[in-house]
Design a protein that fits this description.
Chain lengths: 562, 314
Amino acid sequence: MSLTARSTRTVTRRQFLRACAFVSGGLALVVACGPQPPAPAAPKAEAPAPTAAPAQQAPAQKPAEAAKPAEAKPAAAAETPKKGGTLRVGFYVEAATMDPHLSGSKIDRQVYHNVYDPLVILDTKLQIKPNLAESWQTPDPKTIIFKLRQGVKFHDGTDLNAEAAKFNFDRMATEPKSVRKGEIANIESTSVVDPYTLKLSLKKPDSSLLASLTDRAGMMISPEIIKKKGPDLERDAAGAGAGPFQFVEWVKDDHILLKRNENYWNKEGGPYLEQIRYRPIPDDTVKLQSLQAGEIDVMDYVAPRDVAAVKADKNLVEVDVPSLAAFWYMLNGTKPPFDNKLLRQATMYAIDTEAIVKGVWLGVGVPANGPISSSSWAYDDTIKPVKRDVAMAKAKLAEAGMPNGFSFSVNTTNIPINVQELEVVKAQLAEAGITMNFNLMDGARLLAEGNAKTFEMSTYQWSGRPDPDGNTYQFFHTTPGTSLNWSGFSNPRADELLDKTREVSDQAERKKLYSEVIKILQEEAPVIFVVHPIEPKAFSPKVQAYDPIPDGMMRFKDVWLK
Amino acid sequence: MGRLVLRRLLATIPVLVLVTSGVFSLIHLTPGDPVEAMMAESQDPVAKEAVRAQLGLDQPLYVQYVSWIGRLVQADLGRSIRNHEPVIENVTRRIRPSVQLALMAMLVSLAVSFPVGILSATHRNSPLDGFGTLFALFGICMPNFLIALLLIFFFGVTMRWLPISGYVDPLEDPLAGIRSLTLPAITLGLALAAVITRTLRSSLLEVLSEDYVRTARAKGLAERLVVRHHALKNGLIPVVTVLGLQFGTLIGGAVITEYVFALPGVGRLVVDAVFSRDYPLVQGVVLLIALGFILSNLVVDVVYGWLDPRIRYG
């Protein structure tokens, strides 16, 4: 080892140590010098007044009241809306795809409702209103004729006309990866009557179809973009929609950026915002802290455990958005133990859903009486959720010849609130002598076991559809083979009623039919209904004019920033 | 040295084959498949079969593996099933924040562990040493997510000095970028600092009791110089081993930190890919992470030779 060599190395090492010291000092400097966001404003006396209204709704106790869409907006709408600004939205999870025809993820729809315009839209009372379709007629129960609005252009500048609409319906029906096939299954054919008139011919009457067209199945994509981009549309939707905002970019797991569509057809109101920037922040606590610190302006969902804190925070505006969702436990009726109706009933009576909603959901939801959520027009508040009755549960066990109970296992995804909920259920079942074991797994496996009907009991969370058909038919109508009817439920009377709900178009009439279905479900217990969760959202007070629609989707067309 | 590098690079091939075939069979054995995950809402078994056939998932496993390897040798990692993006693009974009975070975490840990480790060793059994041990225990015991949440609460929410979540590329906006990575780097760096502190302390103690150190002291050298010029370099060898192993872990295994701070890193990419059973993506990422591990260990071996010329590879 030569002397020179050694000294070079010594210097290097010294430099290295010096560099370490420098870096630690540098870090401190970076911390100190960076731009500092304004400190939290002192709680103002003039905190947005209408906030209190949705906050004071006592959702758990009064299903009927919670069922009303929150009418208050985060702030007084009296002021003149201001153009400009970037709305920063925090999501709980990353979007899956930008192609509405291939999307099976709820979070995608949050983006779509601002990028893609549907043919028809929902109002806050879940009634269907014209949108891209100016009007529609049903000359007979098996035909729907849409009159499309003239002069509407996609973001790529091409015309949105009947040809384009037909292209969309055809693609939904034929594209192999399409998951819209079920929603449009009743459409026999689509034809272009004239450039702005589209005719749908149905296989059989379907009064739920129109409601499906308020969401992904009705969202129009530019045929030119589909042809040009092919599968790349899944991650780049530039030019694809006709909505109030257009897609700019999507950096996976970082952000999705939209900008204002200057040529939006509807000149009433917005779009006011310059940009919308969606960011997935998977950790609930961090997402809430980001909102509190002003890094985001909107969070899509407030976890039940945080709702009280958010309501108490004067610098945040909380809105309880009633949802269409229903969470239930699937019981597999195709194999033991739940092929025995008595054991299904025993399990149902042993579970106290009211206690679960109060204790686990902390009142951020209502106990479910069936699959139709309390925000739907078809909700029947005269049917009460099944009450816990341990004596009855034991009687059913005895009748089934199992007075000492039985044991089964439940499939669930390993998410804290699911596990907490099932811990409570386990304890409740134990009081009736029923033993429940846990089978924690990820979402993909839960779906696989459900579709293959290899489970015994499985948690199931359905985000809900505007038409009650979407919460009932596919789960409880006899369907051979693979279907969402995981419990394998088959009841001739229920089938008849469910078929009839599609033929009848009068809402009052349909509601009666659904009520009868729910009574059958409460008796047969193919599933155990647990909760209709509320979807609380939180906003910065500068977000104005947000109108909550019970499907939980955030449409930002008329939203502006103070 | 050149021969060593070449030989080690050749030795990576069987390792990679083992890793990829292992991951390949594990992910395919896991219940659920990408088509079910992607088309959960569709109840059309015929359509699902068609998509499976289109993706080649209906082939026997070994056929799928061989055809994957076949494309791999042509430098084609395939495309993500979920969003059709080429795997290589996906990974190169995601590896950037991960490497930046790993480097910063390493700097943080070195900046902390060197002074603490050296002082602990030179002031053995003093209160200072006790503090060092306490610090190390704290760093090792505290779960990542807890440190992360505490840091966010203090620096982000209360003091508002640093951003809470999100990523800015330091190569595009250096100040904002470094600020966005500071809290995650401290989170990761503290745990690593604890490990390095302990390693450095014990190896330095051992070196300090060597004969040549006694000789140096006997020559009348100042203790500071003895430590810096004679002991430290030899004491660094185990530290370099730890660093080399940890660097790989930091890149692929910082899932929780990436999750909490909403950073678009490789860890989250692979976890999400596993959840959606995005086979090509999982395989591609694991392959590249394994490659990263092997290379960082190769670098470690080279650095050994520089630190201690007695170590020779023949």
